[in-house]
Specification:
Number of strands: 25
Shape: globular
Largest sheet: 8 strands, parallel, barrel
CATH topology of the largest domain: TIM Barrel
CATH superfamily of the largest domain: Glycosidases
CATH architecture of the largest domain: Alpha-Beta Barrel
Strand content: 25-35%
Radius of gyration: 23 Å
Helix content: 10-25%
Number of helices: 10
Distance between the termini: 31 Å
Number of domains: 2
Structural class: alpha/beta
């Protein structure tokens, strides 16, 4: 059996974790909206057409934030198409995903859904085919109380009170040539600066997310962030990061090491933000919004009828090793909570999602649902500098990869401490010793184990058995050693007694 050691102290805090890092994403793509969160006529639908079975699963995770309406979709979206009487809304060709958009679900429906499920909206504006004028009009529609054209238009649509949306994305992946209205860094930076200016003139209380590169492997990464930030540093608050991982080569060891790539991406992006800060002699700190992240590769290449409505697109069926990869990404996000203030698991329902549904039928949790749930439920508080001593290994693309990766979160108000740990080793147990330097009176009360499954095991509507199990621990012994099984996600909970 291998051995690892974690040493923890209250004095060594990384940051207070922003709860918005447990956010998610709903795009008008496939069945994320239609047949996902919204399905009038479903036996579990409420009066607004929102699926209550889906909302129940979302509430289990306690998702604090949902990004909407895209994604690639937003770069061709006319938000006016999705407001007003439903019977008068136009059907549009949706060019990002080659489908037909009925617009029966739009801005006001989304805001009502957010209130019903208990989450906050993160709205994106179209800076692809549209620009600053449409962006500021949408802010006025959503956030101004009354007495102007767009605020009174909202009220005429039945939303008498402002939606008070506080967080806005300035477009989506604008460095990608697949994007409608694709721009150079300079073109986008100028457009984003002007949009940010007028949006904040309408509502100075909002926060804005600048589009960073579409992923860390883009040829534009680095220069794009530096150029666009140089043009609008004073008007934005965050830079976006998008990152997806795959295991097409069936190399599990290398797949589970890819969180190291995410770590490097986050730290490099933070350095670029700080370079521009120094260049401008600014005191303002730009933080990061990892507003798309997940495992994504199972459904690539799936066929569907072009221009169909809400087809089955990107419906990845996640296996157990995907859940471990998601757990490792969550650990990385928490470890970098001093700079990552927003993160959105992409997406929430059906489309590369932790929750799946059948049209007219069941809803169920995929394998990746559980690390996400645990991190959101027990990962709120202070991320601690986790001094981790562990054995290491090399993979095809990475060297010195820890057999165990871990982060600890201290909820001082509840007097609870949680250690999240993944054992990447495919064959050998690892005995994890936890040294609580100054947590007097804290005792281990629970060990949640997610292990023992074939790495390709999945959950389905018919069989939903890939789930974690909980072991209650005695609160009296002082021993702090925990066996981490091979290929395992572990949540070890301590409480002051």
């Amino acid at each position: 059996m291998k051995q690892s050691k974690v040493t923890l102290s209250k004095d060594y805090k990384i940051s207070k974790i922003d709860n918005r890092v447990f956010g998610s994403f709903i795009e008008h793509l496939g069945r994320a909206v239609y047949g996902g969160i919204y399905e009038p006529g479903h036996p579990a639908a409420d009066a607004n057409g929102f699926r209550k079975d889906v909302m129940d699963l979302i509430r289990q995770i306690d998702v604090p934030l949902v990004r909407y309406p895209g994604g690639n979709f937003v770069s061709g979206y006319r938000w006016e198409d999705g407001v007003g009487p439903v019977e008068e809304r136009p059907r549009r060709l949706e060019l990002a995903w080659s489908t037909t958009e009925p617009n029966t679900f739009g801005t006001n429906e989304f805001m009502q859904w957010c209130k019903t499920v208990g989450t906050a909206p993160m709205m994106a504006v179209n800076l692809g085919t549209r620009g600053p004028d449409d962006a500021r009009n949408l802010v006025e529609y959503c956030n101004h109380e009354k007495g102007t054209y767009y605020s009174d238009l909202r009220r005429s649509h039945g939303a008498l009170q402002p939606h008070d949306v506080k967080l806005w994305c300035l477009g989506n992946e604008m460095d990608g040539d697949w994007q409608m209205g694709h721009k150079t860094a300079y073109e986008y930076g100028r457009t984003a600066n002007e949009a940010a200016k007028v949006m904040k003139w309408v509502d100075p209380s909002i926060e804005l997310v600048l589009c960073g590169s579409s992923n860390s492997h883009m040829g534009t990464f680095g220069d794009w962030e530096a150029t666009t930030l140089d043009l609008c540093y004073d008007k934005v608050d965050y830079v976006s990061l998008h990152q997806y991982f795959d295991c097409r080569d069936k190399d599990t060891a290398n797949f589970l090491a890819k969180s190291c790539d995410l770590e490097n991406y986050i730290r490099t992006a933070a350095c670029i933000c700080d370079f521009v800060k120094g260049k401008k002699h600014s005191k303002k700190q730009i933080h990061l919004s990892l507003d798309e992240w997940n495992v994504w590769y199972h459904s690539n290449g799936a066929q569907f009828e072009k221009w169909s409505e809400a087809p089955h697109i990107l419906e990845d069926v996640y296996n157990f090793e995907d859940a471990l990869a998601v757990g490792l990404m969550l650990i990385t996000i928490l470890r970098n909570s001093d700079r990552v203030k927003i993160a959105c698991l992409a997406q929430l329902v059906n489309v590369i999602a932790p929750i799946m549904t059948e049209n007219g039928g069941k809803a169920w949790a995929q394998t990746i649902f559980y690390p996400y749930l645990h991190a959101s439920r027990y990962g709120r508080g202070y991320a601690l500098q986790t001094l981790l001593e562990t054995t290491k290994h090399d993979t095809k693309d990475f060297t010195d990869v820890g057999d165990v990766d871990s982060i600890a979160v201290w909820n001082d108000a509840a007097e609870e401490l949680t250690v999240f740990a993944v054992n990447r080793d495919m064959e050998e147990d690892n005995l994890l010793s936890v040294n609580l330097k100054d947590f007097a009176g804290y005792k281990a009360i629970e060990h949640i184990r997610y292990d023992g499954f074939d790495r390709y095991a999945v959950n389905t509507a018919q069989k939903n058995s890939v789930k974690p199990r909980s072991e209650a621990l005695s609160a009296t012994p002082d021993a702090c050693e925990f066996r981490l099984n091979p290929l395992s996600w572990n949540v070890i909970r301590f409480k002051k007694v």
